[in-house]
Structure prediction request, 554 residues.
Amino acid sequence: MGWNEFFLALGETVGMTVIATILAYLVGMPLGILLYMTGKKGLKPNRALNFVIGILVNTLRSVPCLILIIILIPLTRGVFGRATGAWYTMIIPLFFASFAYVARVIETSLNEVDQGVVETARSMGASTFQIVWKVLLREARPSLVLGLSLSTISILGYTAFAFDFGAGGLIARAYSIYNNHPMNYLSRPDIWVILILIVIVVQVIQELGLYWSKQIDKRRIAK
Amino acid sequence: MPEIEIRNLCKSFGDKTILDHVSLEIEKGDVYGVLGLSGAGKSTLVRCINGLEIPDGGEIYYRGELLCSPSKRIEKQKRSKIAMIFQQFNLLEQRSVLGNVLLGLEIVKFGDRMRRREKAMECLRRVGLEDKADAYPANLSGGQKQRVAIARALALDPEVILSDEATSALDPETTQSILSLLKELNKELGITIVMISHQLGVIESICNKVAILDNAKLVEQGELSDVFLNPKTEIARSLIYADHVHTALNEHHFIRLLFDGNSDEPIIANIVQQCSLLVSIVYASTKVIDGKVYGQTVIKRPKEEADREKLKKYLQLRHVKFEEVKSLGME
Prediction:
C-alpha cells in the first residue's frame, strides 16, 4: 500500500465519522434535551413521553450495528443510489447507530448541571427555552464537549463495519490486508501503519476534546 | 395592607405534611425571620412564596392580590419582584460575575445590551464587587459569591428578597457582613426581607419580626423582642436557648431574668451585694435590638427556701421580670 492509499483510507474514515457525528448530534442533541426535560428531575416531567423516548433510544442502541446496516440498505440505496462500495454509504447506518447514544450522552451531561441554578432561573421567571439555552447548555458546555469527543470515537469504532460493504476506510483496509495475506499479515508493515494512524486519530480526537473542554471551563482556579 | 399575606398554607410531599395551615402576614419593610429546626418546613414556606413549590391548600397574597394558590400559578412579572437568595448561592459557574448578574435582566429582556450592563454594574457596586465583574465564581470566596447572588437579585428591582439559609454556609464574620448588607438594602431601598434560618443569631441580629415553625405548624409569631423574651412553647424555648445550654444542667432549677432594655443597673452584682446571695450564672445573653438593650440571664435557683424568697422580693422590688424554669428547653 502506498502513502496515497493510506491517506485516501484516512480521508474516508474521517469523512464518514465526521458527517455521521454531525448528523447524530443534529438529532441526538434535541432528543437528549427532551430526555432530560421529561425526566424525573427535568423541567417538564412527563413519564409517558420519557418512557417512549427511552424505549426508542434503548432499542436503537441494542440493535447491533451490523444488523442496522443491513436493515438500512434500502434507505441508503434510495438516498445515494447504492448501498455498498463507497464511503458515503456508511453515513446513514452510522448515523442511525449513534444518535441514540448521543442522546444519552447529552442527557448525562445535562443531568450533571446543578439543580440549584435551574431553580434560580425558574425563580426569576425564566421560560423553559431560556433555561435550556441560557442555563443548562451553557453550564454543561465543558461536559458536552467531552461527550462530543467520546461520541466521535465511538462512531469511529463503528466504521469497522464498512469492510463488510466495501465502503473503505482505515479499519476496513486493515482487515483486507489480513484477508489477502492471511499467512503473513502481521509481518507486513502496512497493517501496522494503519494501526498507528488509527491510534493517532483517536488520540487527536480525545486530546482535542479534553483541551477544548478545559479551555472553556470557567470552574478552574485562576492563578 | 400587608406586603405578603399567607393564609392557611398547606403542603405535603407524599404522606409527609410539610406545612399545616400556616398563616402569617409580612408588612412592607419588615425583616421577617422564620426560625425552625431542619425539616420544620421553613424552606418549603418561602419556596411557595415565589412559586418554586405549588401549595396543596391555602393562598398567598401579594399587596392584596392573589399571588398563588393550588389553582393559580404565580405570574412571571411577579416572580421578578420577589427575588431569592440561597444557601448554596446557585451561581452559574460558567458565567462571569457580571454574567451572573445579567442573567435575570436577560430573562426579563430588560433594555438593550448597554443598559443591562450598566444596570448590572450598578448592582455590583452596591454589593462592593465592581472590581470582580470579570472574575468567575470559582475564584470567589463564599461571602463574595453570596454578594454576587444578592447583586443578581437586586438587578430586577425586587420588592421582596427571600433568603433561604443564605448565610448558613458562611463563617461567622462573613455572615455578619452579609447580614449588614441585607439590613442596609432593607433600610435604604425599603426591600422587605424574609429570612429563613435555623440559626438563632442570624434571626436576632437583623429581624424585627419572627415566626417559629415546628413540625409543619406555625407555633409562635410576633415582634422579635416579644417572642425572644417570652417564648411560650417548648420548641421556641429550645430554639432560643439550644445553642448555649448543656443537658446536664437540667437536674437543677433555674431562675430566668429578663431585661427589657430599660435597666442600666448591674442587677446581678446588686443581688450579690444587697441580698448577700452567691449567684451562679448558667446562661447569659444580651443583644441590641432596634437600638435597645435586651437580654436574659439564667441563674441557678438558691437551695434554701428563705434565700429564694429574698431573691424574688428583691427582683420584684427592682421591677426585673423573672420566671422559674425547670429545664432550659433541652430534653
